[in-house]
Each structure stands twice: as structure tokens, then as C-alpha cells.
Amino acid sequence: MTPLEGTDNLRISDTDALIVVDLQPDFMPGGALAVPGGDEIIEGINKLVPHFTTVVVSQDWHPVGHKSFASAHPGKKPNDLFEAPGLGPVLWPDHCVQGTAGADYHPDFHFNHASLLLRKGVNPNIDSYSVFMENDMETKTGLSGYLDTRDVTRIFLCGLALDYCVAFSAKDGIRFGFDTLVMEDLSRAVDAPPGHKERIIDEMKEMGVSLITSDMLTF
Length: 219
Hints:
- With 219 residues, the protein is of the alpha/beta class.
- It is built from four helices and six strands, in the order βαββαβαβαβ.
- It has a domain at 12-154: Isochorismatase-like (Rossmann fold, 3-Layer(aba) Sandwich).
- 18% of the residues lie in helices and 17% in strands.
- It has a six-stranded parallel beta sheet with strand order 3-2-1-4-5-6, with helices on both faces.
- α3 (162-175) links the parallel β4 and β5 (179-188).
- The radius of gyration is 16 Å and the shape is globular.
- The mean pLDDT is 95.
């Protein structure tokens, strides 16, 4: 865990934002791209939501035939290693396809309290792990500007998956100048390829992301 300067300072204020990443059925146990234990974090996240003035909720929203899907590449199967501009490091099963039940928010998640609902991964040729940037590292989602207009200076991230969309969002949060914290207890990892979770956590720490648990917050 990254050491924090004064954990007493984790009192939530109007300049903080909660960013909840991809709590969708396809990422839950039994889903098309299941993250182990993904359903275990929903209750804890719901308890946090009312304490934040700014709550951003993301939603993977892929068109049919998205190039991140193994099915879009003849002879490939899910979790095969794959590198291409804006894609990789592996190919995924079809998941979170626009308009399908698997792309909805989990029915137990209180997303109606959100101040912003953000859909990502809509470009058929480029994936979008981060809530701030698509994977081409050029196309912005507009979230940084939205947070700036609300005078947000610090962001708390949680959700699915820790080693992909949560981590990429956290690293971009640092790049866009936000004090960025990831709640490990309210996130779960897919760890594909094996060892990816450990590598990405090290990258987050090196960039200045703080890894915390939700019980460290005060209101």
C-alpha cells in the first residue's frame, strides 16, 4: 500500500469525486467476462455513494464486433495475447455489447445517485479502459473537464476490473493532475494475462496513486 501523508486527511469534501467503474452483469460471476468476486463490492460501494457530491459511474458500451473481441479475429480465442494500436494486451470474449442485459448496470447498484453516467469503448476499433482517455492515448472522454468545472481535486476509484479499467483510470487521473486514490477492498482484478495485477499495481504506485481501503475514509 502506498504510504499517505496524513491519513487523517481522508475526510470527504465537495472537492472529492467518487468514480465507480463498470459494475455491469457481464463482469460479475456468471457473466461473459467474469471478474472473480465482482459482486462482493456492490454493497460497500452503495454505502459510499451518498457521501460524495460528485459521483461518476462508467459503463463499458461496445458495439457488435468490437475489435477487442476475440470473435472479431478469425482463429483467435479469448485471453489470447494480442497487441495492436489501441488494443491488447489480450483479446476478450464478447462483453458489454450495447443494448444487451450484460451491459446494463448491476440491478443492486444504486447508480441513480450518480451526477454523471459515462459510456466508454464505443469506438469499434479502439478499446477504452480508462474513464479519461481511450486506449489510443489521444481521444479524451471529457471527464477531466467535467471534474474541473465541479472544482474536484481528488478522486476515489473503485470497481471492475482493478488491473484494467480501474488502474488505467487511476494512472490517467494522475496525468490529468488529480490526487488519485484506489480503494482496493472495493475493487476486484481479472489478472489476465497471469501476473498482470501485480505489475499494474506496481505501475500505479510508481506514478503516485495511493492504494487505500474504504474504512480509511471519514465523512
